[in-house]
Design a protein that fits this description.
Layout: H1 2-45, E1 55-59, E2 62-66, E3 71-74, E4 78-86, E5 92-102, E6 108-114, E7 120-124, E8 128-136, E9 141-150, E10 156-164, H2 172-179, E11 182-183, E12 197-205, E13 208-215, E14 221-224, E15 227-234, E16 240-244, H3 265-277, E17 288-292, E18 296-297, E19 300-301, H4 302-308, E20 320-324, H5 331-337, E21 358-367, E22 369-375, E23 381-382, E24 396-399, E25 405-406, E26 415-417
Parallel strand pairs: 11-12, 14-26
Antiparallel strand pairs: 1-2, 2-4, 3-10, 4-9, 5-8, 5-10, 6-7, 6-9, 12-13, 13-15, 14-15, 15-16, 16-24, 17-20, 18-19, 21-22, 22-23, 25-26
């Protein structure tokens, strides 16, 4: 009896323990499943707020893997990592862009590096193209880190965009021509102030057929290198000439003694400005011909009569051609854009924020001192200010012919290089 009772007792005890353990296991499993469901639910609800979720995007022939997400919302330093893979059998191209930058970013910088060590770009944080037309060989992957450095504890945010450059995208020249009606001649006589939008007009320059904007144009805006520019003309070689929509911050003389631009102080100041503002964008900027017309006939600059009495400006350089990445407008280009000896506040070169006359590269006269042609604050072409006086410089650059862009050229939708 005792033995039987003990066996039954032990069996009952074992059965109870087994059931107890089984019940605990079931509770553990149920609890684990509940946690998973809650985690998935919470993750779903707050997915958009996560900045470190990996995102994979396929764009044409490339795959972009944003390993730490493509958005950032930071207060201090931070880092994003991403990779680009070429899935095709041919070399393809893509660009990297910062977009939707918000917050006090004047004290935030970034540095972009790739694992190959052939790309290292640093700049202030702003919405802009970081790098354009990056080549990637067939079947290869390129890895990147994007580091942010903040000098103060204030929130800043934005996103990085990587996208392929499609072969069918138009060049800058072709897009401008496609979006504008082309005219054979101007509405107003050259030498008269052009105060209405006269559009895009065809002409000739040293390199072939050119196209220039004239008058109160509203669709020749370009956003480039974080600055606003205006299109002056499409050059004969397909490159696009831009003039800054304002002047540089520092006043400069043309030169104390020299009349040649290539030996002038203003050239040095422009190149210093280029180094500070455009060095990281040099791949987009063509080394083009700038015309320094200081040709003298019978002790008079040949441009003087051409501009002041004959009203016969030309894109064909009649002086010295200088190859450079930055320069100035010629008096001829100002007149063809719509400037004249008269006041004109209704053409695209006029900017009410320009408070000091700015130099051109064209000589007007020499009366003990050199007097280059200048553009006054009211938009008129003048020649009564000596080159040794402090005045403004308005930079001019030429974008390469093979660049891809989008936009319509308006102030709210300017052309932007891809």
């Amino acid at each position: 009896m005792t033995l039987s009772f003990n066996i039954k007792y032990n069996l009952n005890k074992l059965g109870y323990g087994y059931m107890k353990r089984k019940f605990k296991s079931m509770l553990t499993i149920i609890g684990f499943l509940i946690c998973i469901c809650l985690s998935l639910g919470v993750g779903y609800l707050f997915y958009e707020k996560h900045s470190d979720e990996a995102i994979i995007v396929v764009d044409g022939n490339i795959t972009i893997n944003y390993l730490t997400g493509n958005e950032f919302n930071l207060k201090n330093d931070g880092e994003l990592c991403f990779s680009v893979t070429n899935n095709s059998a041919d070399k393809v191209y893509y660009y990297i862009q910062l977009s939707d930058i918000k917050g006090p970013n004047d004290n935030v910088t970034y540095e972009l590096k790739n694992s190959d060590g052939n790309l290292n770009i640093s700049n202030d944080l702003k919405s802009d193209i970081i790098s354009n037309s990056i080549a990637i060989d067939a079947g290869t992957t390129q890895n990147y880190t994007l580091n942010f450095k903040s000098g103060e504890e204030k929130n800043y945010s934005g996103k990085v965009i990587v996208a392929s450059i499609q072969n069918e995208a138009m060049s800058f020249k072709d897009l401008i021509l496609a979006q504008n009606e082309i005219y054979d001649e101007s509405l107003t006589k050259i030498g008269e102030a052009a105060t209405v939008d006269e559009g895009l007009i065809t002409d000739l320059d040293d390199l072939g057929t050119a196209y220039y904007f004239r008058g109160n144009v509203v669709n020749n805006y370009v956003s480039f290198a974080g600055l606003t520019w205006r299109i002056v003309k499409i050059n004969g070689d397909g490159s696009v000439k831009l003039v800054l929509d304002n002047v540089i911050d520092v006043l400069t003389m043309y030169d104390e003694d020299n009349i040649a631009y290539d030996e002038s102080l203003i050239k040095d100041n422009l190149e210093n400005w280029y180094d500070l503002n455009l060095t990281n964008y040099s791949d987009y900027i063509a080394s083009s011909k700038f015309c320094n017309d200081i040709t003298i006939n019978n002790n008079v600059f040949s441009a003087y009569n051409r501009i002041t009495t004959d009203f016969n400006p030309s894109f064909v350089c009649l002086g010295e051609e200088i190859s450079a990445k930055i320069g100035l407008l010629t008096a001829d280009e100002v007149m063809l854009a719509g400037g004249s000896k008269d006041k004109n506040e209704n053409y695209y070169l006029y900017n009410e924020n320009i408070k000091t006359p700015y130099f051109t590269m064209t000589g007007a006269k020499y009366v003990n001192l050199f007097y280059p042609f200048m553009v006054s604050t009211d938009g008129s072409i003048i020649n009564d200010i000596a080159g040794n006086l402090l005045r403004s410089a308005r930079p001019v650059i030429n974008l390469s012919e093979n660049l891809k862009v989008n936009g319509t050229g308006t102030l709210n939708d300017p052309y932007v290089v891809l």
